Amino acid sequence: MSNNQEAIDTSAIKIKISKLEEPDYRLDFDMPDEIVEDINRRLKEGGYDYDDEQMTSLLTKICLDEGMNRLDKKSVWGPKLMPGTAPGKFCCDSGFLFSAIVDAIPTGILDQIDSIPIRRRKLEVTNELIETELFEQRLLFGSRESFSGEVAYGDEITCNATLTVDGNDTPEFAIDNYKLRIPKEGQLLAIGIFSCDEGEQLRSASVPGTISITLSDQQEKNSRLVLEVTSAERITPCEVDEILKQYGTANETLLKAQIKLSLQRNFDRENNTIMRNQLFNYLAENITVPVSQRIIEGHWEDMCKGELEKNPEQSELGEEIKNNLRTKAEAMANRRVVTRCFQEQFELNISEEDVQEQICDIAESRRVRPEEVQEEFVSSDRMQILVNMVMDKKIFNRLKDKMVFTDAT
Fold it and tell me: What is the pTM of this model?
């Protein structure tokens, strides 16, 4: 279209807005044939030869933009075709008709919050913790050799790890070729974001082979962590001088000071994560927001489909699995709505610098380069996860004045 032409008069589009069950609205569009003809003519004069599908897409976008402008409400999920209705179809000599459904972000969510109880842990970085971390550093730069037999603290195994819960048909997670360092007494056994204090069941086990670790939670549901160990390495710790050389640190005293600072930073990072989880668990249990049932149904159907794809021999899911997936779908949709409510309430935005800071934070916690973390998230198309992490932090910081902190003993 020519830049010197007058803009299309979208005010002539007829739009009927009807309130449905909260938080949804129905928008019925009727774009008169003269507007359709005008848009089509301008495109042709500008040298654009749109086919019917492209015209349909353009007219739909023009209608939806005008409809959202008149509705004057922000949406979590965006407008969709109204279920049970036909999509619009371009015809050069007739109007353009279709109906859409859209949710509106709830308002007044902050009014539901009086105070938020948060348990905050504290850490005293003792000499014992510093010495333990120094030994971990010596293992990191130590020499390795393959071995079989009884594993001990400091050994590293490569395994296929699976966590199952009694009564559930599908595992909580299954990770192949995971490298796991055998923890010392008092250290957590950690696999990804999962951790437990059952390291004693792992120490003194024989490898290669299968190691089965029984876990119990507060609901008295038994879980089982199965490690199919494919290989093991015994690590001989390096001398402290080698660590000084690797880090370019002048002496052991300075190295220990750096370790103390690093331990405090890692603890603060972990503690902040735990407190953010407390916050969003509290919000999930105490904040009521309307969530479109159609969204929950869509999430649930996608989850069911995913479960069937993971188990092609199954033709149908059991009722317990379907019920569990529905609960997860409801929680997922509710969390997204709550997050968007606060994002709008506090007018929060995320910059590229925010995302890069999050990448550096993860890299520091893993002791890897930021480039490795970025490549991991980009290659697996999970950059949105980083964005979500940043938004959670921003919401936590804005809600601090509502929090009542209790120091954990």
Answer: 0.78
